[in-house]
Amino acid sequence: MSDMLYFDHAATTPVHPRVLEAMTPYLTQVFGNPSSVHGAGREARKALEQARDAIASFMGAEAQSLIFTSGGTEADNMAIIGGAMAQRERGRHVITTQIEHHAVLHACEYLEQAGFDVTYLPVDETGSVRMEDLQQAVRPDTVLVSIMYGNNEVGTIQPIVEIGNFLREKGIIFHTDAVQAFGVLPFQVSELPVDMLSVSAHKINGPKGVGALYLGRKIPVSPILHGGSQERKRRAGTENLAGIVGFAEATKVAAEERADRVAKYEQMKAVMLAVWQEANIAYHVNGHPEHVLPHILNVSFPGVHTETMLMNLDLVGIAAASGSACTSGSLELSHVLVAMKLADEIARSAIRFSFGITNTVDEAKQAAQAVAQIVSRLARSK
């Protein structure tokens, strides 16, 4: 793995050395259950609440509004299923988009089986939701809207503030999946018109298996896990203390390095595009040209099938992706690119490069040159 050029940080990231160091004592020495009343339990509880304070502070939230989960998927499920179920007497209509992560889409499908009506909003060719589509979709029985902050495949950033302000006026609860935006976009939850927001540690160089749901005051959510009274009776189960401590450290590192990281990612994008332009190969950048996450570059090379490109890149030690890691392995077209109504040859040749802390600008150039060589070689062999 050491000599592999890894450009799949949107799928998962390596654990930062500082995160590993912060976690180690909670795997070896401080192993008490945070719910226990003895000294070991109190020590664990103190660490848990310090971590909650640190993460809440980073995202501009009150500490008590943060519920720890097993990751972004559980946070999304809790927000959507828990939020809808808590309001089912008020109404049974939910709105989301066609380009959400499967953690949101499958949660919505579950609600449909439970008797809810779900509207899946279309997007334009840049992957953006149109406000008029949302406005037209709202009904008197609409109780919940879930629209992601930044897309995990093409990086398009949605107009969250505009959407949230409109929904506030209507008195409709708004959830956003901010798993990809967290740590790269400088947002403060206290300044956003959102009621629920999902985040995950392993996308920001924290450990896998831990995430959180921001839950605004007085927002009704029925628990989806049943057992103990952890997390103020909102999420049963012993907290993943070491993971949560690691999550807190990852947010601290992200806070210190965010501006530098973003500048580096923008430079990587520019370098890759310059290489392809100079090599005079056909390429098409997918997603919004301006409102896009800095660490994601989704690009198509017409004439070269996605799987062929990924295989060829893998052979030269470069890891990229076809979109969502949760669906890689299937040869189906990305639901995001299908929703964007891209031409077939664009959709079938799309590759996602996603940048992270281990990458250098030189590596980005190397990867782009490898792509150019593969495209040229395959063109010659036809």
Layout of strands and helices, then pairs:
Elements: E1 5-6, H1 17-28, H2 39-59, E2 66-69, H3 72-86, E3 93-97, H4 102-113, E4 117-121, H5 131-137, E5 142-146, H6 160-170, E6 173-177, E7 196-200, E8 211-215, H7 230-233, H8 241-278, E9 284-286, E10 296-300, H9 306-315, E11 318-319, H10 335-339, H11 344-347, E12 350-354, H12 361-380
Parallel strand pairs: 1-11, 3-4, 3-5, 5-6, 6-7
Antiparallel strand pairs: 2-8, 7-8, 9-10, 10-12
Helix pairs in contact: 1-8, 2-8, 3-4, 8-12
Description:
With 382 residues, the protein is α/β, with parallel strands linked by helices. The protein is 42% helix and 13% strand. It has 12 helices and 12 strands. Strand 5 (142-146), helix 6 (160-170) and strand 6 (173-177) form a beta-alpha-beta unit. 48% of the residues are buried. It catalyses: (sulfur carrier)-H + L-cysteine = (sulfur carrier)-SH + L-alanine. Its cofactor is pyridoxal 5'-phosphate. Keywords: Iron, Iron-sulfur, Metal-binding, Pyridoxal phosphate, Transferase. This is cysteine desulfurase.
Q: Which properties best describe this structure?
A:
382 residues, alpha/beta, Aspartate Aminotransferase, domain 1, Aspartate Aminotransferase, domain 2, 2 domains, 7-stranded mixed beta sheet, 3-stranded antiparallel beta sheet, 42% helix, globular
